[in-house]
Amino acid sequence: xxxxxxxxxxxxxxxxxxxxxxxxxxxxxxxxxxxxxxxxxxxxxxxxxxxxxxxxxxxxxxxxxxxxxxxxxxxxxxxxxxxxxxxxxxxxxxxxxxxxxxxxxxxxxxxxxxxxxxxxxxxxxxxxxxxxxxxxxxxxxxxxxxxxxxxxxxxxxxxxxxxxxxxxxxxxxxxxxxxxxxxxxxxxxxxxxxxxxxxxxxxxxxxxxxxxxxxxxxxxxxxxxxxxxxxxxxxxxxxxxxxxxxxxxxxxxxxxxxxxxxxxxxxxxxxxxxxxxxxxxxxxxxxxxxxxxxxxxxxxxxxxxxxxxxxxxxxxxxxxxxxxxxxxxxxxxxxxxx
Length: 338
Ligand code: H2U
Ligand code: ZN
Fold this sequence. Notes:
Layout: E1 9-13, E2 18-22, E3 71-74, E4 88-91, E5 95-98, E6 102-108, H1 122-140, E7 147-154, E8 166-172, H2 177-193, H3 197-208, E9 212-215, E10 219-222, E11 233-237, H4 249-269, E12 276-281, E13 296-300, H5 316-319, E14 323-324, H6 328-337
Parallel strand pairs: 2-14
Antiparallel strand pairs: 1-2, 3-6, 4-5, 6-8, 7-8, 7-12, 9-10, 10-11, 11-13, 12-13
Helix pairs in contact: 1-4
The structure holds 5,6-dihydrouridine-5'-monophosphate and zinc ion (ZN).
């Protein structure tokens, strides 16, 4: 394809069927708007007031185990419950609702209050990967759970309620909207072409190398051609696996390695802790084989041009469609070079 660095254009996201507007020439416009502050104070190894540190009391009065590795507990303020009785309503297709059941868990990544994924050693992150696999399999095996969404909100800017390294898992009765969209597109592609959309896309990106950020034997991280967030990345398993439970031992190590590699690059970019939401998309757990699925993670970081200036999704984006100024190619180059 020709040079997409100059003219305003639209890019297609084959995973969701949506489009993003790219305006490369706008990246230089001045900024006199909101400037974020980032807490930079050094944190202790253990904070007696932190509700996620080992041995501490949580907000709801329960106490954490004196854990030394990864610690998983059921969210005390869960968004969904396993026992909600079924109910539904439909008034002329206009007032439509139904109850949703689910299970919400919190995963403490480390007993150390002051660490983040980027600061951890590979064997420590590997233990988090093992915990995610175990929770995906266990929650996914419940008869009423059809999707297990694993994610992390990192940093105050992304709404994380606590700096202690942790993530969440929301297992739901129905695949949520983003998963359902991807499921539809991946399924349609397999039906039409007989191959996996993300295997084909990865092959293309590995050949081009333009948007590739880093890779190891089993995973690659790249800025997708259709990225919306300035430094958004997509982490793809190199082998076609539908979910984490199909990863080999060395591929689990590869996943741990690439998570460290990408978060270290993010922190180096503006020489400051880099906020993001990240999470995995994998085979829904409805009992079907879902061969169209290809395990991947999305990193959606809000920062735009420094540690304190973020991208807002407002105006045209709320009313029209997502838009970006810095091209994915430029973002990938910067992430490669740090
Ligand atoms: P976030 O930082 O991504 O919000 O995750 C923290 C979660 O921890 C949040 O969902 C839960 C909140 O409900 N939580 C507990 O389960 N117990 C507590 O004592 C405090 C926070
Ligand atoms: Zn803590």
